[in-house]
Amino acid sequence: MTQHHPDSHSLMEYSAGNLSDPHALCIRLHLDQCPHCRSRVDMLDSLGAVMMEQQTSVDVSEGMFDRILDTIDQQPEAAPTPKKPVGNPLERLLGSDINTLPWKRQLADVSVLDITHLFPSQPEQVVLQKLTAGGKAPAHTHRGSETTIVLQGAFSDHKGVFKQWDFVVLDQSDEHKPVALEGDDCITLSVLSAPVKLTGTFTRLLNPFIR
């Protein structure tokens, strides 16, 4: 079961169709595996449909949606509906299983695949990253925001352990050094508004070459 979820504002923006395609994809991948967040979005969709049908002009604050979502959270959670093995939206977009992609080794334990070209009208960088099982990524911070969803395996950092389908958002205030758990390679999908900034003693020299 997923432990780290998109926040209320992100779910509200997803329901309203206001997110960029890469960010919407990250949330969609999470929703496909998380009945908790799926029920919240279903309620937001229903509320939006009623408002449009009644052509109601209402000042809906984020606090109002938070109260609605809190009410949903207090209700018993329905059992997840079994899913057919048809492949997730990312693999359909890639036309390939994530383990068979042409990964590019970037550092000792880190391989990447930039898929920004699949979102030509979007300003963000969209990157798949693979961290070898038990491997460590270099310490880094962010020049902007980074939205990440775990597609396979798991990693740990200063915020905790993030397993498959967990969702995390980082910004300039976060400096971390992800470590992949043993077992499977950790594969993530990240959407970045700006390049990362390496902070390690030696890896800082690579900053000019990191997009």
UniProtKB/TrEMBL annotation:
Residues 97-189 form the ChrR-like cupin domain. It holds the Pfam family Cupin_7. InterPro entries: Anti-sigma_ChrR, Anti_sigma_zinc_sf, ChrR-like_cupin_dom, RmlC-like_jellyroll, RmlC_Cupin_sf. It comes from the Bacteria. This is Anti-sigma factor. The lineage of its organism: Bacteria, Pseudomonadati, Pseudomonadota, Gammaproteobacteria, Pseudomonadales.
